[in-house]
Structures
1.
Amino acid sequence: MRVGILYSRIRKDEKLLLNELRERGHEVEKIDVRKERFGLESTTANVDDLDIVVDRCLSTSRSLYATQFLDSYGVPVVNAPETGDICADKAKNSLALAEADIPTPATEVSFTKESAMESIESFGYPCVLKPVVGSWGRLMAKIDSRNAAEAILEHKETLGHYEHKVFYIQEFVDKPGRDIRALAVDGDPIAAMTRSSDHWLTNAAKGGETKSFELDDRARELVERASEAVGGGLLGVDLMEVGGEGSGEYTVHEVNHTVEFKALDAASEVDVPAKVVDWLEAKVAAADDEATEATA
Amino acid sequence: MTSDTDTLLAEDPITGEEIELPADVEVGEIIDSPVTGTELEVISLDPVVLEEAPELEEDWGE
């Protein structure tokens, strides 16, 4: 198959994927989105005859626009722009999970310092304030007191960008020093790991220690439903255990659409890039079958 | 520039020192400078040209 890779940086994750694709003899078209132009009818990027394009843009804004344009040209792209649109925004993410009746932390959005303070006080301390767009645990605040809340809200108000005036406030989930990242393709979990840290932020990007994790039936069900809630694709579903380690009860706090998998590949026995390419091959084969049936 | 089959040689854009890169690096790839630890981007392979990788931006991530 001919596979396009949308990117602006080839990280270890993209390298693993590129190597796997090439080892299997697939033709790869690397599309550096920084160098291309996207018009209403066509693009300077060489997307002709691509069987599928995989969005690996590190920048959320580039990811959202580039996938939208490719989709408008009829180029098959994963993840779909609709999925990216939900996953890139924590508020939309929370709404999608809640609408699908998936347990997710209680969340409020407010637009002024005053109403944000009311949200914070209604949750009580500690609670969590996150940017609606952002990743790797950046600019996330665990708020322990009213004094801290006032200072953080004031700082956010002066940060400038309008997104910092959308206050996304969430209950603090007292997780057992770890959370769970599951990588799934159209709801089917490929592998999972825990991310542990003494810090309240356990992201692997923040130095959280990773360890392979076996999902139980309940976690698998939630991963599948969370994937469906955002439109499916190659996704990183983040869960926290509620009621202590091994309780078997979870809350899903986030679904990520341009998911990194190098840490999971290293932590787990599963060959993650191989599983991702298996999925891409199956998707392309299914699309070919559909096209054949349509012309028969 | 090449040294042997396993590595490529390139100039570190920050220090000007010659550094070794894995032979399978590709355009767009981010590597850590063995001299300063700075993230460098591979701009071209023939000749091998490196530039300091762009700074992290607010919307980068998963």
2.
Amino acid sequence: MGITRLLDIGKSALFTTQQAISVTGHNIANVDTPGYSRQQITLSENVPQDGSPGQIGTGVQAESIRRSLDSFVEDQLLSSREQLGQFNASGSAMARLEPLFGDANNQGIGAGLNDFFGALQDVATNPSDLSARTVFLSKATALAGQFNQSAQALTAAQQSIDHQVGQTITDVNRLTSQISGLNTKIAAAESSGQQANDLRDERGVALADLGERIEISSIEDATGQLTVFAGRGHALVDKERTYQLVGVPDLSNNGLLDVRYDAGAGSPTSIAPVIQSGRLKGLLDVRDQTIPSLQSSLDTLASELVTQVNQQHRLGFGLDGSTNQNFFAPAGTTAGTIAVSLSNVRQIAASSTVGGVPGNNANALVLAGLRTTDFASFGDVTFQEYYSTIAGNFGSATQGIQSNLQAQQVLHDQLTSQRSSVSGVSMDEELANLLQYQRSFEAASRMIVVADELFQSILSMKR
Amino acid sequence: MRVSDQQLYGSTIGNLQRTKERMVTAQEQIASQQRIAKPSDDPSIFGQVILDKSALADNDQWMRNIQFGTARVAVADQTLGETQNLIGRVRELAVQAGSDTTSAQGRVTIAQEVRQLHRQLIQLANTEVAGQPVFAGTKTNAPPFVLGTGDTVSYQGNSESQSIAVGPNQTTQIVLPGDQVFTGGTTNIFDDLSNLLTALEGNNKAGIEVGIGSLDQATAQISLAQGQIGAIANRLDTAQGTSQVVSEALQHVLSDQTSTDLATALTELQLQETAYQATSQTFTRLFDSSLLKFLR
């Protein structure tokens, strides 16, 4: 029937434009929402009716509301988040260790070694001068203090990183349970043929947050549910189910947290070695590699210093005739425990003969000569050369991570920009659409008025 | 390309942040005058800086050592000079006493002056620098030459000598033990004077002549010591010069390695400032041109 059809067509146009205006409004409202993907309404013609001389149209319908998304860019963005998380975590952890090497400002162990051997030279030059001996003893104590401080700073940094590891594990578990919850909701919504755009956006944000913390891969099944893997095929989320990560104090690693995977049966297994990137990887690298390697280098330095100085010192004679005395406490052979044990400045063994005191300085000269001696435990270099290698290597590692971080940030910005280009809301576009739909709405309303007028005309014929 | 609002904001904010970070870095370098403060600023240079600072400390220490040694050596040299004068004066007196015209009484009078000079020589041989005797070997806690009964003098120092570090693996002796300079070597000068006194007071002309002979030996012995001290002073002087040159070179290198090049840093700051302003201005322009402005 002609007029009713016109009324129906007008009605379909009215409803559809209203829906289109809602989608536009939703886009405008979410212009600043993180992770929001622009939604697009797809319009199509209604099924036509057969008639004479041919099929006749029945109006318009909204076919679907879809997210604008480039899944390739999304994948790249996720892996970029993983890298960024790793470099950010290790970069800032290492930047906090850099003040240990204050040598450019005459602080640090290098400067301490200079002061120590300088003061020892003063004793050698004027062996009977008590003030030179006092200065030497205080410089030695200061050097031991610098070693102790560095060791403490390293331990403190390790503890603080360990705390962050625990925090990150908690975050991972929170995010996986969030993702599994969203899995359930999405499956429920989409089982009835709906497209769960906003829930999917929300899950995308959670997935990216998860990726920043630990490297993941994921697959989506036909119902729209995600299975998320970390490490080597360790499922963190399996549709509606989650598997937890647990931080277990590892007694073979100073009680620091081991990252373990709880498969639900049996005791949790360690996955720390198979984590490839993400924040956890960055933290574990610094905690378990950079810091222990620094610690062991400083320990080697301290140990050699204690052994060599003591060995030579025991051969000499103090002003009071004392001999066979250790200068450093022999038990303190690490950076954390090195300590001066000699307290009486007269016992500093500058003399090589008992009869040579107070003016004999031969032993002090040999002691001072340790500064230029190459030691096998350092790979045949001197104290200073070994220390400068430690600082140089640490600097290279830090610089490497920082430049990786910078490069990754630029890449990430580019990817974000690409994502925005596809999925971001453009206000101009939405406003234009709004105008367009507004006009359509007006026209559809007009159509209904016309249909009404047609009815009126027909009805008036009866009179 | 489709441009979304987020994209505009995101890229502008990213650019502004990076520019500002570079501005802060340049500003820090200008304020601290330091191009390298942390190992990561330039790892290879940082390692080198540690070694250069260590080498600089070594050179400064050697110069300190040399300064100390030079003071000792200068005093020893001066003392030896005065000793030489003193022996010369004794020799004059001995020659005068040895003359046939000098009476026994005259020889006794001369002996009195020689005894004064003998005591003065003890003082010279006990010369100290900063409370430490110069000719005591390494036994520097007591005067080495002690007057015993009569005119006998005993040496209570030792024969050891002290060396100081003056360069890379180089040491230089800075002490001549007193038993080498005064009581040992060729002759014991105190014994020579003491014997001369006995000859003078005993009116023993032959003894006086023997004494003159031994004084010549004493002069030669002190001359030898003077020569040794002179050689030490030369070595110290040379070492000082070397350390000075190396030290200045190292300071220059360190300053090149670590100091901010002001011109470069200021140019960089200016550049980043301009970039920052330009980005800020274009940012406001971009957001001025929105469809929203024309829909009223």
